[in-house]
Amino acid sequence: MSIHSTVKRVTTHVLAEMKLKGEKIAMLTSYDYSMASIVDKAGIDVILVGDSASNVMAGFETTLPITLDNMIYHAASVVRAAKRALVVVDMPFGTYQGNSKEALSSAIRIMKETGAHAVKIEGGAEILESVERILSAGIPVMGHLGLTPQSIHKFGTYVVRARDEEEAKRLKEDAKLLEEKGVFAIVLEKIPAVLAGEVAESLSIPAIGIGAGSKVDGQVLVIHDMLGINQEFSPRFLRRYHNLYQEITGAVQGYIKDVRSLDFPNEKEQY
Fold first, then answer.
1. What is the DSSP code string of 118-178?
2. Average confidence (pLDDT) over 69-73
3. DSSP 71-110
4. N or C, where is the chain less crowded by C-beta within 10 Å?
5. What mean pLDDT comes out for the span 46-63?
6. pLDDT attached to residue 150
């Protein structure tokens, strides 16, 4: 009997039950086997293989350049590590917008080639056809509203979304539309806390926030931000739980010093 056979897998159904019971959902990103293994064993509910890999893993300025092949590589690595968490994969820019047939074939590739449990796609009314087609193949979909980073060039800025009444109304409508189509959860990014709370309350599916206050059903952060590996990014909503940048820098400098002074390797560290 394998060590993990007793671990109960988090499913979309488990998340729905958590919302019903008022239990908050904890979600973090991961992009590789080693990190996902730690995050999974620590007890996270959902691992998002985010297109934020474009920024934190590949060094691009936006999430736009990352390809479907790149996302499949990262997701497959994460799935091999995750024994408990639900693994959700971002569909990258250009794989679902405006073409629902391409959306379906992209989603099928992700599910077949990675073993992930769900896909996430950004947008509301304008992507409903893609959502519908993906769901028709039995693939669970997580929605994403508010600040949608793949639309950065449309908005021209990463400011808080849905501050005005018109945009707030549209966001509420989009959330209901996505729920009616059958998405199992929605990420709400960088919107006013009051609005996020209203949206979460109006839905029977979980609403997971990032920069959306505490009245939602769960939270998500990018792991490189939350661990303090990435120092450049400091939005108001980010709480750093560690300063790994400093710790890793210190460790590397210690190693360099020991190599140069012939302290490493010592007699016990050789054959």
1. EEEEEBSGGGHHHHHHHHHTT--EEEEEES-GGGHHHHSS-PPP--SHHHHHHHHHHHHHH
2. 98
3. HHHHHHHHHHH-SSSEEEEEPPTTSSTT-HHHHHHHHHHH
4. C
5. 97
6. 87
> Which residue from 84, 136, 141 is spatially nearest to 118, judged by alpha carbons?
141
What are the CB-based long-range contacts (under 8 Å, 24+) for 137-140?
A: 137/104, 137/107, 137/108, 139/107, 139/108, 139/111, 140/12, 140/184
**Cβ pair 76, 30 in contact under 8 A:** no
Compute the average pLDDT of residues 243-254: 98
**Dihedrals phi, psi of 209, to nearest 5 degrees:** -100, 150
Secondary structure of residue 186 in the 3-state scheme: strand
Q: Which amino acids are annotated catalytic?
A: 189
Q: Return the structure tokens found at 41.
A: 């064993």
pLDDT-above-90 percentage for the chain: 89
Residue 86's nearest CA partner among 116, 106, 110 is 116
What pLDDT does 158 receive?
78
